[in-house]
Amino acid sequence: MSDKTIRINIWSGPRNISTALMYSFAQRKDTTVFDEPLYAHYLSKSNANEYHPGADEILATMENDGDKVVMMMQGEHSTPIVFFKQMTHHLIDIDWSFMKGMINIILTRNPREMLPSYAEQINQPNIHDVGYAAHIEVMEYLKKLGQPIIVLDGKNVLLNPQKVLSELCEKIGIPFDSSMLSWEAGARPEDGCWAKYWYKNVHRSTCFAPYQPKTTPFPKHLEGLLTECQPLYDQLASIAIQP
Predict the structure, then answer these.
(1) In which residue ranges of the chain is pLDDT below 70?
(2) Cα–Cα distance measured from residue 9 to residue 83, given in angstroms and rounded to the nearest whole number
(3) Domain layout of the chain by residue ranges
């Protein structure tokens, strides 16, 4: 890999602000963004293709071979910064060593807020679908690599986008760019083909929306999964960049 290229992985769980962050970084003239390049690899290596909306189209239009995707990520790019929006649960049956030459950021969200949103599309999610356990595995792996642990909590970003993104850019080693705080409404050419199922809200947005706590009752059928996820989230939230 070129030592001059800054390659950023945002390792998110679903139904967080990962797409808004991708749109934010896309405003930078020095940055190219990629939307979940390992999605087809994940679907090809799991039974998730049986219940993910648009799975057939994703498998037909994206590279299914995770090793080839990693080669693309490590290759030459037209900008000095490359941003890969990733889902942590996509990291199956693949060599994680590519993370050594990249900046890796964990993006998390309180499962009490995330799980009901995710269940609107995936009715019976499990611990492997939602990424919390994999987040902890990634954190431990990055510690072994000697990398700094950088954690974003979606709520904190929404509470104070400029402060949190400024600190994030400082940790990455790039200057903060105020253009990251807003974008034009609508789809982006980098959007994955799954955007029609998941991106309606972000397509209506022009900036990071103010944080709004959920007020609806938590679904009873998700309480067992919440019990699994909450302590994992709490570990990450305790070290996340503060608003």
Answers:
(1) 1-2
(2) 6
(3) 6-237
The answer to whether domain 6-237 has CATH 3.30.70.2730 is no
Beta strands in the chain (DSSP E): 6-12, 31-35, 81-87, 103-108, 150-153
3 Cβ partners below 8 Å, 6+ apart?
none
Bridge partners for 84 per DSSP: 9, 34
Asked whether the beta carbons of 31 and 83 are under 8 A apart, the reply is yes
Residue 168, both tokens: 């994030």
Residues 54-106: tens digit of each pLDDT: 999 999 999 999 999 999 999 999 999 999 999 998 999 999 999 999 999 99
Cα(85)–Cα(14) distance, rounded to whole angstroms?
11
Q: Is 37 helix (H, G, I), strand (E, B) or coil?
A: coil
